[in-house]
Design a protein that fits this description.
4 helices; single chain; elongated
């Protein structure tokens, strides 16, 4: 097997893996959407028998409740709001997989990755990552604030020790940095496409 055949075979393998990730992301997004809809349609959904929430997570901290009865009546709506950032992230992953597979298509066929217009797929991946990071970050901040307000967390702690509970949301810049790197690669692809075009015209 020559080098080109190895590249084609590897590209096909990566394409299958990306497709599996895409399907998994879509399934996860569909399940998340169901939870969001049920949470807003029936705010007490998560307090029904069999669905009762007894553990609440804040970052790396898990609060184990003795009973779901301490939760407010609208907790299902708050929980649904908290699922939205994950839903947005899963949709973004699925979209990125679509453009990623388009990026792999020339290599699967044994063609150059610097095919005309392929850099647009790179730009699309970068913009998707940025938009998803910003929107998900906004919803995450809103959700945390709403959860703190809804639960009245001060009542969970010893008032002689804890005076108040506040939340300072920190924005995750990692997706932005990753997107900037992808934009840089997109420009490299664009330059490669131009060189390939000039090379083809001279033949």
């Amino acid at each position: 097997m020559n080098e080109m055949e190895k590249i084609k075979k590897t590209s096909r393998g990566i394409d299958v893996f990306v497709l599996v990730v895409q399907i998994a992301a879509l399934v996860g997004a569909a399940l998340s959407l169901i939870i969001i809809i049920m949470g807003f349609a029936s705010p007490d959904f998560m307090q029904n028998p069999g669905n009762a929430v007894t553990t609440i997570t804040f970052g790396d901290i898990d609060l184990k409740l003795k009973s779901a009865d301490v939760l407010p009546d609208d907790f299902g709506r708050v929980l649904a709001l908290g699922v939205i950032p994950g839903f947005i992230t899963l949709i973004a992953v699925a979209v990125i997989c679509v453009f990623g597979r388009r990026l792999l298509k020339p290599m699967k066929l044994g063609e150059t990755p610097f095919s005309e217009g392929n850099h647009k797929n790179m730009f699309a991946i970068g913009w998707t990552a940025i938009i998803a990071a910003v929107v998900a970050g906004v919803f995450e901040g809103i959700c945390t604030s709403a959860m703190l307000k809804s639960l009245n967390l001060e009542s969970f702690f010893n008032p002689d020790v804890v005076e108040s509970v506040t939340c300072d949301s920190a924005f995750n810049a990692a997706p932005i940095v990753a997107a900037l790197v992808i934009f840089l690669l997109a420009y490299i692809f664009k330059y490669g496409e131009q060189l390939q075009k000039e090379s083809d015209e001279t033949l």
